[in-house]
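Students often ask why inverse folding is considered easier than folding. One informal answer: many sequences map to the same fold, so there is more than one right answer. In these notes we will look at a single instance of the problem. The structure comes first.
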């Protein structure tokens, strides 16, 4: 059974940093494109970043570019999202998701077949 588990969410002050982890069980994350999504209260889920299956190249939502970094660790079967200079608008539940195919980059949630349960990130003073 394919499972994704997110961790690393917490409450931080504006300007702070967090590192989210997405670990896989039952499959190798390297074989899948991985995306990070978030959902703020009262808002629709949005794509934040994704990393490619083949070449490991990454793509970011414009509002997080330069602040967030997505990366893989094959030995740990994990994908990370390093988030720096956090802002209040980054608050939400963060989900990782996996896809076996599709376009090289996509932040559309319908392109992803497997989802974790999410981890809460709260940015507040």
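Output (designed amino acids):
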């Amino acid at each position: 059974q394919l499972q994704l588990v997110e961790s690393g969410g917490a409450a931080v002050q504006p300007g702070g940093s967090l590192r989210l982890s997405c670990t896989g069980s039952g499959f190798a994350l390297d074989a899948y494109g991985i995306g990070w999504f978030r959902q703020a209260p009262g808002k629709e889920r949005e794509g934040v970043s994704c990393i490619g299956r083949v070449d490991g190249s990454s793509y970011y939502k414009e509002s997080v570019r330069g602040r967030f970094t997505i990366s893989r660790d094959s030995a740990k079967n994990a994908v990370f999202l390093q988030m720096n200079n956090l802002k209040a608008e980054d608050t939400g539940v963060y989900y990782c998701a996996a896809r076996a195919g599709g376009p090289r980059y996509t932040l559309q949630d319908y392109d992803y077949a497997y989802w974790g349960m999410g981890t809460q990130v709260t940015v507040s003073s």
